[in-house]
Write a structure and sequence with these properties.
The chain has one domain: Catalase core domain (Catalase HpII,  Chain A, domain 1, Beta Barrel). Helices cover 32% and strands 23% of the residues. The chain is globular. With 332 residues, it is an alpha+beta fold. It has ten helices and twelve strands. The strands form two sheets. Strands 1, 2, 3, 4, 6, 7, 8, 10, 11 and 12 form a ten-stranded antiparallel β-sheet that branches. Strands 5-9 form a two-stranded antiparallel sheet.
């Protein structure tokens, strides 16, 4: 598939750039995705072998079965009716691999899904618990990380961070949408970027993903304070030992006038939501730590029948994730 091939090539090029340029050479003239990874490393520290963001995680496996409604929206092989194997990674936010799961900096928690298609092709969905993104562009995300890095944990916000937050009210609005989950299985995850379905007749429909659990359970501050450092990582295998965990993959459909370019702009709640199918997770992989270091999830790794929108953050995320992958692969 041409789209898959182009995404793989883009990832390889970004990874080559990241590995080939020494840290001391990287500066303001480096590509923005490289600067983003550098800024995350500055904020959270460099941890060889781990992601620059969402460093702490756990990998599970299961399957996806599409709904009939999905096939009407898109000709993607994801929705052709076959039961597809999936690899899923749940994660804490931030670049610290030892962050306490209930720490505020661990929000928003993330979920990445890799669909394994017949013939060996793959397609990814990357979502997190934010209902919309804090900023509109990769450049603004870079500035946010640099501002946050100027403010030590536990200290009063630095003047740089205060100024950024004051000029970008979308940051506070976005972070207000998250809570601390009781379990990875009891959190709802959102695709902040818009994509476009293309059906067999060539009709196009812009949408954003939602991954909905059977129920959502968030902890109070008092409850979260009592949780162990790894309570989310411990909870998932314990749950799966008792039976599968299920989510519904959904799509919120845009209507004319809804912005697809700005991920910091939520669409109104009255937009149609279509159930695309059931995601069933039934086991944690035997060596999650080793497995997650080999996995690369790219929001723009798509199939025929699903296209990127005009949101420039999609390509920026792909490149930054590939840069991070290249560095952790070079320094396991």
């Amino acid at each position: 598939m041409a789209t898959l091939a182009s995404n793989t090539l883009a990832a390889a090029l970004a990874a080559t750039i990241a590995v080939g340029v020494p840290t001391w050479v990287r500066a303001a003239d480096a590509p923005v995705p490289v600067q983003i990874v550098d800024a995350l490393n500055k904020r959270f520290g460099v941890h060889p072998g781990f992601r620059a963001n969402h460093a702490k995680g756990i990998v599970a496996e299961g399957s996806f079965t599409a709904s009939p409604q999905a096939a009407a929206l898109s000709r993607s092989p994801l929705f052709a009716g076959a039961k597809l194997p999936v690899t899923v990674r749940f994660s804490d936010s931030g670049g610290q691999p030892d962050v306490p799961d209930a720490a505020p900096v661990a929000n928003p928690h993330g979920m990445a899904i890799k669909f394994h298609l017949p013939g060996g092709a793959e397609s990814d969905i990357v979502v997190n618990a934010l209902k919309f993104f804090p900023v509109a562009t990769a450049e603004e995300f870079l500035a946010l990380q640099l501002a946050a890095a100027s403010s030590p944990p536990g200290a009063s916000p630095s003047p740089q961070l205060k100024a950024f937050l004051a000029s970008h009210p979308s940051v506070a609005k976005a972070t207000a949408t998250v809570g601390t989950p009781a379990s990875f299985a009891e959190e709802q995850y959102f695709g902040v970027d818009a994509f476009v379905f293309v059906n067999k007749a060539g009709k196009k429909q812009a949408f954003r993903y939602i991954v909905a659990p059977e129920k959502i359970v968030h902890l109070s501050k008092e409850e979260a304070a009592k949780k162990s450092t790894d309570y989310l990582m411990d909870d998932l295998p314990a749950r799966l030992a008792k039976g599968p965990v299920t989510f519904h993959l959904k799509a919120q459909l845009a209507v004319p006038g809804d912005s697809t370019r700005d991920p910091s702009q939520a669409w109104p709640d009255d937009r149609p939501v279509v159930d695309l199918g059931v995601l069933t997770i039934d086991r944690v992989v035997a060596d999650s730590t080793a497995a997650e270091k080999k996995l690369l999830f790219l929001p723009g790794r798509l199939t025929d029948g699903i296209e990127p929108s005009d949101d420039p953050l999609i390509a920026a995320r792909d490149a930054a994730y590939a840069v991070s992958f290249g560095r952790r692969s070079a320094n396991p």
